[in-house]
Amino acid sequence: MFDDLRDLYQEVILDHGRKPRNFRRLENADRSARGDNPMCGDRMGLFLKLTPDGHIADAAFQGRGCAISMASASLMTETVKGKTAAEAEELGTRFRGLAMTGTCPDCGTGLADEMERLQPLSGVHEYPSRVKCATLAWHTLNAALEGTPGEERMASSE
Fold first, then answer.
1. Confidence of residue 1 (pLDDT cuts 50, 70, 90)
2. What is the biggest distance separating any 2 CA atoms in the chain, rounded to whole angstroms?
3. pTM over 0.85
4. Are 146 and 153 spatial neighbours (Cβ–Cβ below 8 Å)?
5. Is the pLDDT of residue 108 over 70?
């Protein structure tokens, strides 16, 4: 059964890596940031549109990188839509723990569905050099959320 699950996770990563969702420039974005992983050359621009009450109405990205980096950005943009900035940051913290350890023991029920959706990327913990590939989009998200409207921020996966 473990091999079947691993195959499914690999298929999800490959699908999102080859056909990333929300891969576009988001016109009229409220927040944006650029992310760079100098170790492997992954680069991305992230664009967010926020509602007046601070929820993420839309998220999109452009860039180039390995399948893990692109899959992570694709899954992230799908997962954070509808979340507040605080919820998205909390999800990012939990995801970084998942990427580094392969588990998320304190995800709680409030994040269970979202973390299950991100579970295919849990295997990167076995390859420490790939953790930065998986977390680049999340670091870029934090940079965008910390910025002010109209300001483009810079993030690094280091």
1. very low
2. 48
3. yes
4. yes
5. no
